[in-house]
Specification:
The chain is α+β, with helices and mostly antiparallel strands. It has 2 domains: 105 residues, Rieske [2Fe-2S] iron-sulphur domain (Rieske Iron-sulfur Protein, 3-layer Sandwich), CATH 2.102.10.10; 240 residues, Naphthalene 1,2-dioxygenase Alpha Subunit, Chain A, domain 1. The chain is 29% helix and 25% strand. It has a 7-stranded antiparallel sheet. Strands 11-17-16-15-14-13-12 form a 7-stranded antiparallel sheet, with helices on both faces. It has a 3-stranded antiparallel sheet with strand order 6-7-8, with no helix packed on it. β6 and β7 form a beta hairpin. α5 packs antiparallel against α11. It is globular and about 80 Å long. The mean pLDDT is 95.
């Protein structure tokens, strides 16, 4: 394809990749319907019968907990004539009942009631179409592919870092959904780099000391010395350090990151904002952060967590869902102030929305041309090269 040949390695993509409907449709088929996606936390479906829906382009997915407590997912499409079944964003049901003709399905997706169905029709062949599900330490991942890609290594790597936080024993502190008026790849490029952090995110830079360090050698050396001391102290607490780099192990990278001297969590003043999570008995002043291709990112402090779910909506729109988690026995306004828990990443997300939308407006200009990535944007270049392989149907 001529458009693919126009892409120059080390540069942003040709304009059509960020604006054209046929490219967007191809992205959904070749990326979002092929790879594992973060659907949400298990605490969103705490009881059997609880469910929520996840819209991925034209596909609506019902994620639920069945009678035995297992997380399952089904396509939200009645096997009669195709009606949506679950019409609410979330709810509770003993059975999934189609509102059109009342065909009913149990929580495992099997058809259990269909009035006037001819005797020769085999009811067992009319269950809801299943969606693959994997749960990693309280995080629900789904994949729409008939043959999902391997996920065992991702699960092993992520679980090694997440296990102590016991995210399966959390509750939702706050959940917010917004639409960023930009193509999902514009959003992805922004979130795969921190080159923009210093000029755009003063609050983030006040919390995370590495943000300015990349622009100043003196600060960089101070950061390296701080990290060395932090790793020693963190190991002495018996807490995990280190990280997993992006490789052929899986479409993920992440690990432990120190915050800054004197800060025990990601808050305005570095002081605790909620009870310690999971098995932790002490603060260690670090976070655990992971990113997955195509665009999944979550960060866990010692006392709270943030999950971000990015979903393409249209060529020029991307949905962002932000979910903050705290320990399941914590009481709002007694043990934590939701505004304090959410402060950093709510502020940062609002700033990111502004710069992504400005970026998209510029890309729409007749004068837009792909520009070169800097040495501070190597992760963006990795993302774009991976994307181009996927877009061409190659194996990353």
């Amino acid at each position: 394809m001529e458009l693919i040949e126009q892409h120059q390695r080390g540069y942003s993509l040709p304009q059509a990749f960020y604006v054209e409907p046929h490219i967007f449709n191809a992205d959904m088929d070749r990326i979002y319907r092929r790879h594992w996606l973060l659907a949400g936390p298990t605490c969103r479906v705490p009881q059997p019968g609880d469910y929520f829906t996840y819209q991925i382009a034209n596909d609506s997915i019902v994620v639920l907990r069945n009678e035995s407590g297992t997380i399952r997912a089904h396509h939200n499409v009645c096997r009669h004539r195709g009606s949506r079944i679950a019409l609410d964003e979330q709810g509770h049901a003993r059975r999934l009942v189609c509102p059109y003709h009342n065909w009913a399905y149990d929580l495992n997706g099997a058809l259990c009631a269909a009035r006037h169905l001819p005797e020769e029709v085999d009811q067992t062949t009319l269950g809801l179409h299943p969606v693959a599900v994997r749960v990693i330490d309280g995080l629900i991942f789904v994949c729409l592919a008939d043959a999902p890609p391997p996920f065992d290594q991702t699960e092993a790597d992520v679980s090694e870092f997440l296990a102590p936080y016991r995210l399966d024993r959390t509750q939702i502190c706050r959940r917010e959904v917004e639409v960023i008026r930009a193509n999902w790849k514009v959003v992805a490029e922004n979130f795969w780099e921190c080159y923009h952090c210093a000029p755009t995110h003063p609050e983030f830079c006040s919390v995370m000391s590495y943000a300015h360090a990349q622009n100043n050698e003196r600060l960089a050396e101070e950061r390296r010395a701080f990290e060395r001391d932090w790793e020693v102290a963190t190991r002495q607490l018996g807490h995990k350090v280190g990280r997993v780099e992006w490789s052929d192990r899986g479409l993920h990278q992440g690990g432990r990151v120190a915050i800054r001297p004197g800060f025990v969590t990601q808050s305005r003043d570095g002081r605790p904002v909620a009870p310690l999570l999971g098995d932790l008995t002490q603060y260690d002043g670090g976070i655990t952060s992971f990113m997955h291709f195509p665009l999944i990112w979550y960060v866990v402090s010692n006392d709270h967590a943030l999950l971000t779910r990015f979903t393409p909506v249209s060529p020029l729109e991307t949905e962002l869902e932000l979910t903050w988690l705290v320990r399941d026995d914590a009481v709002a306004d007694r043990d934590y102030d939701p505004d304090n828990v959410c402060w950093l990443w709510k502020t940062t997300a609002e700033q990111d929305r502004t710069i992504c939308e400005n970026n998209q407006r510029g890309i729409l200009s007749s004068r837009y041309q792909p520009g070169p990535y800097t040495t501070a944007e190597s992760s963006v270049n990795d993302f774009v090269e991976w994307y181009m392989k996927e877009f061409q149907g190659e194996t990353a």
